[in-house]
Amino acid sequence: MMFYLGLMWEYFKNYAKTRLTYRADFWIEVVSDLAFQAINLIVILIAFRHTPTLGGWTEAEVVFVFGYFMVPYGIFSCFFDLWNFSERYIVKGEMDRVLTRPAHNLFQILLENMYPPGLIGSFVGLVIMAVTARQMGMTFDWTDLVMLLVLTAGAVMVYFGLYTALTAIGFFTDAPTGILPLMFNLQSYGRYPVTIYNRTMRFVLTWLLPFAFVGVYPASYFLERSGAADLRMALLTPAVGLVFTAIGLVVWNIGVKRYRGAGS
Amino acid sequence: MTSMYLDLIRIRFLMMLAYRVNYYSGIVIYAVNIGAYFFFWHAIYGDQEAIRGFTLAQMTTYVAVTWMARAFYFNNLDREIANEVRDGSVAIQFIRPYNYLLVKLFQGFGEGLFRLLLFMTPGLVVVCLIFPIELPRDPAVWLLYAVMLVFSFIINAELNLLTGMGAFYIENVDGLLRMKRVFIDLFSGVLVPIALFPGWLAALSEWLPFQAIAYLPSAVFTGRSTGDEALAAIGLQAAWAVVLIIPIMLMWRAARKRLFVQGG
């Protein structure tokens, strides 16, 4: 364990050194990440100028969910995002290098692709939550804080499991499958109340590609409007996270066994 | 001379054709995005008949056709130029007996032709099967729309040339290009029709070239702008297409003098 924490710190120091050489780039990257989220928020704000509620949800509630959505997403994009995996590790064969080292291969790969600016999105999300919570006159006590940590951990595990499993497809085929970009677009469904979708979409977002568990389900734990059914879904988040993490790790390990190197 | 540029179109078209499989997943991604906004607007409308003159049916059609138009006019000319400036291969382009910007434009057109035939058209068929879309019955509208799409392509390509040339001045433009992309998606009306913008934002958009990329053609397609209004929209597109040539020329002249190639 200490070994892994030490490694993490070393990787982070390395990251900081390479990034500090191009400071301006770093900030432009951060701002452009946030611009993307800001535009999505603007869409919500514009839409609410034409309606008081969205499927029974008020503006403050929807924006609160939006803010919550950014929190696990930021953590995911900092530690678990392996966007370029297939190209870099399979096609170019960098996986060879990783496999000859003593630390677990997935851990090394995650650290090599660490992206600390992603966390800034999480902080902005927290700010959005705080602002809308004030608007709604919500009160917080320490159990809410604990639940925020637990639910966010669950949501991050959902991301981690799902994307690890999908990234592992790279072990089985080196052709680009287009599945990852598809998922990135699909996950934005999770930041709106699931009640606005039809039955099929709701089922898919809850059980198959559980993006509702990275946004609206856990977020509704904190909202006053939520009934018993909503709370049940919210509390399912850590369980769904554990199940998907297990699936992700199993698929990954099967994939690594199939890895044969890229030659040359 | 002309045949050289025509060949550029042909070559890029064939090149895209070789990688056509990548675009099948693109159709699904666009359908996913259209779906997200379809459900979103559905919930926003609720019981309302129309918002700012858009009926729900019109809105659905607007969302679908705008995204599919984006599938056509979208290209990465900006990134291509930036990459060629960064890796220095633009120096070779300068020596060759052609106009570099025209080459990029025609390559973009080859890509656009591919996207029109193998992305937008099948995509529109797929989307029509999934979502309740009302296609215009009047053939004149289709004709107008076809002309407007060509202008959409030209204006978007011109803006890409302009921002791509930013690489002559800034060493790393990736973040800026990403920001430009989301910015254009908002201000061109892809995410929200400009008619729904709050007053001051709509007024601002009317003085920017972006609405000519997506909003104006889609307004004609959905039957919002008809007759003289539609013709005026085409006139506005044509005007922007011509006006944008000026900054491109100015920037190009300055950029050629500034170019320094890093490394070799």
UniProtKB/TrEMBL annotation, chain A:
Coiled coil: none annotated. Keywords: Membrane, Transmembrane, Transmembrane helix. The keyword Magnesium does not apply. It holds the Pfam family ABC2_membrane_6. This is ABC transporter permease protein. The gene is txxe 1198. The lineage of its organism: Bacteria, Bacillati, Bacillota, Bacilli, Bacillales. The keyword Transmembrane applies. The chain crosses the membrane at residues 26-48, 60-83, 114-133, 145-172, 203-223, 235-255. Signal peptide: none annotated.
UniProtKB/TrEMBL annotation, chain B:
Keywords: Membrane, Transmembrane, Transmembrane helix. InterPro entries: ABC-2_transporter-like. The keyword Nucleotide-binding does not apply. The chain crosses the membrane at residues 21-44, 50-69, 113-133, 145-170, 182-201, 230-252. It holds the Pfam family ABC2_membrane_6. The keyword Membrane applies. PANTHER family: SLR1174 PROTEIN (PTHR36832:SF1), SLR1174 PROTEIN-RELATED (PTHR36832). This is Uncharacterized ABC transporter, permease protein. It comes from Thermobacillus xylanilyticus. The lineage of its organism: Bacteria, Bacillati, Bacillota, Bacilli, Bacillales. The gene is txxe 1196.
